[in-house]
From TrEMBL:
Alphabetical UniProt keywords: Cell membrane, Membrane, Transmembrane, Transmembrane helix, Transport
Topology with respect to the bilayer: Multi-pass membrane protein
InterPro entries reported in the protein's UniProt record: AI-2E-like
Protein's UniProt keywords contain Oxidoreductase: no
Protein name (Swiss-Prot/TrEMBL): Putative transport protein YhhT
Family according to the record: Belongs to the autoinducer-2 exporter (AI-2E) (TC 2.A.86) family.
GO biological process, one term: transmembrane transport
Bilayer-spanning residue ranges: 7-25, 31-48, 60-85, 148-169, 210-227, 233-254, 261-282, 302-329
Pfam families: AI-2E_transport
KW Membrane (keyword) present: yes
A GO CC term assigned to this protein in UniProt: plasma membrane
Subcellular location: Cell membrane
Organism: bioreactor metagenome
Length: 341
C-alpha cells in the first residue's frame, strides 16, 4: 500500500514536470525577459548577499549593487553606444562595397590558379571549396545582421529584465523556500546538495568566462583600432561574445577581422592574425583548456565533444550552452549514481 502511494506520488510529480516543461516550450518566445532576469539575478545574488552580510537590509543591498553595476554600464554606454551605432551605420553602408571587393578577390584568386599547372580535378575541387567559403561567409554575415535586428526587436523585453531581476533578488530566499516545499521531505537534503554542487560549478564558469570575454573584447577592439582595421569596436564585441565558446570561439571571432584585413592587404591580415594569437595566448595563461576543463569538472576532450554536440543541436547558442549544461548533467548523474548504488 505504501509502495503504491509512493508510486502515485512520483507519477504525479513527473506528470506535473512534463506538463510544465511542455507549457514552457509552447510559450518559449515570450519568456526571454524572464530568462534574462533570472540570469541577472543569479549573477548579482552573491554580491547582494555579501553587502547584506555587512548589516544592510536586502532591499538596500540590491539598490547599492544595482547603482554600482548600472552606473558603470550607463557610463560605458554613454561613451560606447554612439560609437557602436556609428560603426553599425558605416557597416550597413559599406556591405555592398565589401561584398564587391570580396568577390573581386575571389575572382582574381580563381583566375590565378585556373591558369596554373594544377590538375583539372584539383581546380574543380578548388572551385567547389571557394563557392562553399563564399556561401558560408554570406550566411555568417546574414546571421550577424539578423542577430542585431532581433536584439533591437527584443529591446522592450531587455529593458524590463532588470526590473524583473530586482523582484527575483528581493524574494530570492523566499522563492527557494517555497520551491523546496513542493518536494517530499526525504528529497530535500539531496536536492539542496545537488543545487549547491551545480552552483559551485556554474559560479566559476559563468562569471569567469564573462570576465575573460570582456577582457578579450577590450583587447581585440584596442588592437584592431591601433592597426586601423575597420569596425574595430563591432568586431571586438563580437570576438568577446564568441570567446565564451571554449576552444573554437577564438577562431570564429578572429574570422571577420582577418577577412576584412585581407580585403585591405595580406600584410594587414597577417598583423591581425598575430594580434589574435598574442591575445589568446595571454588568455590561455589565465584560463586555458586545462583550467576550463577543471572548472567545470570535465576532461578537455569532453569539453570539445559537448561544444560540437551543442553546435549540432542548437547552432551558436548550443555551442555557448553546451559545456555548462554538460557540467550540470554530470553533477545530477553523479548524485543519482550515489543514490542508486
Amino acid at each position: 500500500m505504501i509502495v503504491a502511494k509512493r508510486l502515485v506520488r512520483v507519477t504525479i510529480i513527473l506528470l506535473i514536470v512534463l506538463l510544465s516543461s511542455y507549457f514552457l516550450w509552447l510559450v518559449r518566445s515570450g519568456l526571454y525577459p524572464f530568462i534574462i532576469a533570472l540570469f541577472l539575478a543569479y549573477l548579482l545574488n552573491p554580491a547582494v548577499a555579501h553587502v547584506e552580510q555587512k548589516g544592510f537590509k536586502r532591499i538596500w543591498a540590491i539598490i547599492i549593487i544595482y547603482s554600482l553595476v548600472f552606473g558603470v554600464l550607463a557610463f560605458g554606454g554613454i561613451k560606447l553606444v554612439p560609437l557602436l551605432i556609428k560603426e553599425l551605420e558605416n557597416f550597413a553602408r559599406e556591405i555592398p562595397q565589401i561584398t564587391n571587393i570580396g568577390q573581386q578577390f575571389l575572382e582574381n584568386f580563381q583566375a590565378q590558379y585556373q591558369n596554373s599547372a594544377l590538375p583539372f580535378s584539383l581546380r574543380i575541387a578548388f572551385d567547389k571549396a571557394l563557392l562553399s567559403v563564399e556561401t558560408e561567409v554570406q550566411a555568417f554575415t546574414a546571421a550577424i545582421v539578423d542577430g542585431i535586428i532581433n536584439s533591437i526587436s527584443y529591446f522592450i523585453g531587455i529593458i524590463i529584465s532588470p526590473v524583473l531581476a530586482f523582484y527575483l533578488l528581493h524574494d530570492w530566499n523566499e522563492i527557494k523556500e517555497k520551491l523546496l516545499l513542493f518536494l517530499p521531505g526525504k528529497w530535500r537534503y539531496e536536492v539542496i546538495t545537488v543545487v549547491r554542487d551545480i552552483d559551485k560549478v556554474l559560479n566559476g564558469l559563468i562569471r569567469g568566462q564573462l570576465l575573460i570575454a570582456l577582457l578579450v573584447g577590450i583587447l581585440v577592439s584596442t588592437g584592431l583600432y591601433l592597426l586601423n582595421v575597420k569596425f574595430a569596436l563591432l568586431i571586438g564585441i563580437l570576438a568577446g561574445i564568441l570567446d565564451i565558446i571554449p576552444y573554437f570561439g577564438a577562431i570564429i571571432g578572429a574570422t571577420p577581422a582577418v577577412t576584412l584585413a585581407l580585403l585591405d592587404s595580406p600584410f594587414l591580415a597577417l598583423k591581425v592574425i598575430v594580434l589574435f594569437l598574442v591575445i589568446h595566448q595571454l588568455e590561455g595563461t589565465v584560463i586555458g583548456p586545462k583550467i576550463l576543463g577543471e572548472s567545470v569538472g570535465l576532461h578537455p576532450l569532453s569539453v570539445i565533444f559537448f561544444v560540437f554536440v551543442g553546435g549540432e543541436l542548437g547552432g551558436l547558442p548550443g555551442m555557448l550552452l553546451g559545456v555548462p549544461l554538460a557540467a550540470i548533467i554530470k553533477v545530477v548523474f553523479r548524485h543519482l549514481y550515489k543514490l542508486l548504488v
